[in-house]
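Subject: sequence -> structure tokens, single chain

Hey, anyone have a minute? Need the predicted structure for the following. Not urgent.
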Amino acid sequence: METLPTEILSHIFFYLDISSRKDAACVCQTWYFASLHPMLMQGTKFTFDVSTLNEEKSNKITLRDLICKSPNVSLVSLDENLNAKLFIKLHKEGMQILGKHVEQLSLKHSNILDGTLLQILSFCDNLQGLDLTGCNSIFMACRSPLFQHLTSSCREFKILRNLKKLNLSSSRYLNNNIMSRIDTLCPNIESLSLASTNILFSLTGLSKTNSLTFHSITSMIKPNHLVHIDLSRTSIVSSSLSTLASIKGLQLKQVILEGCRSLTDSGVVDLVKHQTSIEVLDVSGCPEIGNPSVSQVCNSLHNLKTFKVKKCQKVSGFSIKQLNLLLNLQELDISECPHVDMKSLKHGIEYLACLKILHMKCCNFSHFGDISSQVYPKRTPLVVSPLGHGLRHLDIGSSKYLDDTVLQAICIHFVNLEVLNMNWCSSVTDAGLLGVPSQQPTEEEQFLLGSKYTTNHGYSGLINSPTDEYKENDEVKIFTDDELIRCMEERGLVRLRLLRQLTLANCPKITSTSLLQIFRYKNHNPFPCLEKLDLGMLRFAVTNDSIIAITRACPRLNYFSMAFCSMVTDDFLRFLIMGMKSLIYLNLSNCDSITEESLLHLPKNCRWLQELDLSMCKNVSASTIQKLKHSIPDLFHLHSRYSGGASLDVSL
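Reply:
Had a minute. Here:
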């Protein structure tokens, strides 16, 4: 292997997953440089915390310590007064975080001036996207024209002219003069984000040079270039949206209007009528948006791929039925839409073969339409209609009426699911996860069993006595091992072998019984692709035995949460830490039984750990937290609120 060319090694690494590729990169210098091949870097993002730099460390830094070939780079905690000059100095001396490989650069919430920004841009010759979200200091002191010293012969001038994506969200000091200067310097902008900015949409603001008006934004829009615009959380009104939509020659593909509370149906209807090429439309959190907008979208935007109407409480099943016209729809978000009944949703999405992502948080599963029994032949379950094998992401969290039968129907039909989120589902039990017949009565049975019958009304004919099929059955069926395995293979969670993310947080009726059976299934990993597992607040499910089973079955987990699981002790947490060496995120908040005895094994075993939550861990001292901060190099976020025995009541 040592004699293989770097190109051959890079080709071999291409077939490894991210975690294995990270481990391989640490073997030797040759393998490390092979892992930096541009083919392997596509789709990755490199985040660098500039606050880790200081004068003492800068003398010990070598090129091998600070090198990056990812096309997407994010600089965190960049400050004009603390570390910006040192960062630029190290780059001039040979540091390779920025360079020709950078295509997307994020400087979110950086405290820098326009001169420093130009120096950073000078290192990125092929830059296509720039994120300046919350960079208020760049524009705050711009009494003179922005970047006034730039000329057409400057290197930075040419870089800005090639810029295609610009994010100016949460910029408080934007005005007409600054936008005019940006328009001059960046004439080829295709994607513009102005979310959470102070924009004057009324006609009275046209003459105010110290403010940013919608008129100045529309005047800088070039119809042949702009295809994506984000005006989320602004005070845009329907008339302004209609003006934007009617710009001659403009063909938008992505329109994000999340949280625009002043927007009404008339504006969205005009937008959809004029901009029929839209592929992504997000009107989440717009309380005045209702059925007219959704109906017009379904009838006009035949190329729509992503549609989000989350928290649009005026949307009902009347318009959702028309979703079957969007044959190219790939992502749908109808979370927290209380008037959308499941029968209408079934009619709308039943034959959408392209649908891959479906968000249905807080949906009312008690309104599911009856279909033929495919779970138990003697019962008519209330389940969602199958969408085929195309669905990859399903979010059904916070659903009060989601029961075991619905979950088992999901496991039967959606076998290609990669992401399943079912947190805060209080009616799901072990039976649903294991695929065994549920002992819980259905909603209709609960109603009949809960009715009161008196001697006066028992024979009046107004209310009949419950029939035998709804009488309580105190006998609990005991399954043999073979019967249990057969149930799990037919209707259980183990059918979803392609799962990458599984969230079961705060499902109070789930116990360790189901977790042990699932993660010990035939003594091998039931979910070979699993990367994220959230078991927070499962007090009776996450025990020492279940920790052993999960660690042995899923040693490649990147994200694991066991918050508020106080039954896990030090010895078994140490077993988890030594077994899951690829962890990036670990949540141990409110785990009262753990101490520094197990936590001090983190630096040796979890070297990729980036975020650790130890909040409210009463047996974890402040000295232990300081040791962890200094001993794990990539640990960017360490949460330790109210740890070390601090009283929450006193602290508040």
